[in-house]
Amino acid sequence: MNLPCGGKYPFGDYISYSNFTFTMKEIKHLWRQNNCESKYGRALVMRTDDFEKPTESNVLCSNWKQWKQPIIWFQGTTDAVAAQFFLKNIHTQMRIAASDLFGDPQVLGSRPNVFGELMRVLISPSKDVEAAVDWVIGGGENPDISLHMRMLMNRSIRAVQAALRCIKKAIESQHPTSRPKVVVVSDTPTLVKSIIANISEFAEVIHFDYENFKGSMFQGLQKADFRVKDWGPAPRWVAFVDFFLASRARYAAISGAHRRVGTTYAQLIAALAAAQNLGNNSTGSNFAFFSSFQSNLLNDGLKNQIGWGHVWNRYAGPLSCRRQPNQCAFTPLLPPAWWDGLWQSPLPRDINRLASFGIKLSAMGTVDTDSLQNHCNSKKPVVRTVKFDLKEETGEAVVERRWSGQTGRGWRWLKNVLAEAEKVAGPEAVVSG
User: Fold this and answer.
1) Residue 24 CB partners (closer than 8 Å, separation 6+)
2) What is the pLDDT of residues 154-203, one digit of tens each?
3) Longest dimension (CA), the chain
4) Highest mean pLDDT among 5-14, 54-63, 187-196, 216-225
5) Cβ atoms within 10 Å, residue 15
6) SS3 for 252?
7) pTM of the entire predicted model
8) Which of 209, 202, 232 is nearest to 132 (CA)?
9) Could you tell me how far CA 342 lies from the centroid of its own chain?
10) Which of 80, 225, 252, 280 is in Cβ range 3.0-4.6 Å of 170 for a Cys bridge?
């Protein structure tokens, strides 16, 4: 359940949200309209827990199933890592629930595509973004493979050569009967133009040339100067078109980079593409996610893959193999959040960061559960809540219009959530957002 605090969704000009999502204004409207407080004795209260404040967060020490507030906002969860911290929660109920959701961390290939399935159900491109994607595809077939190159304005020849080898490996694994189609996206437009000639030798290439696109809503939008080296010089809306275009890939997604491979953006592209293909045909389970490493990124193992939410960070420690050649590595759609799987080991900075959560992490990646239990026993729980005023606000007519003909459906959905929660943990169950 997505709960934007105002009446608008984030990036609402570029992303459409399904009716399984709610703004806080809509929740307040439904809560008031259906007398939830008088009928069920439940005030509209939200409990917050901030993952970015380790000394205050209850992610490891508290049984969230026993919380009484109907809405929980888990703040600071900017990647796939935070929610997987529940896998190490000291309460058995919480660990079982997390394992049901995320699978066995030590068997990466069998873990569910959690975030891909959530995106498939909850979001889609806005009409204008979809028009831009369709403009690129031009009425033809969706691309077979997507390539995302995170280059930070660098034009590394090694990175390009490694990516070309990885594309060929992805093509060979699918045994295509016709000329494959590859979509290329990057934060560095000059690299896209240079790599097209190389890929064109063995595949058709498409990309979004935003400067030649004449879509109505994008006229007159200026390039941004903010964080150009990090995000690239293109207007910010281009990233949304690139994202939904790349997630149309039918067989494989490839992540290449100047420095760090498997960023959150590339992970989400691969996850959504895999989910969409699994939903559309029986071959979706064969979708592959590859990481392209040039040899200079592997000289010292993976120790430079330091991004906290990046998929290869958990392999960056002392068990990482050094001086490997170029790699086109199969990559899990759900990134690991812990370090106790095969060949995983933490960097010193990760050990220090986990210590702030009360976790003693060994150099080999194992968690000292006794130490964590002692930490939780001595930790004073922090409870932060917000009670919402249910008085009507300006703009309620907008809410009414959205729910016209669907108010009953939305309310039935809320009642079903409450009913299921009560089955699990009794009448004081938590409905988490």
Assistant:
1) 3, 4, 5, 6, 7, 388
2) 989 999 999 999 999 999 998 888 999 999 999 998 899 899 999 999 99
3) 69
4) 54-63
5) 18
6) strand
7) 0.87
8) 209
9) 23
10) 252
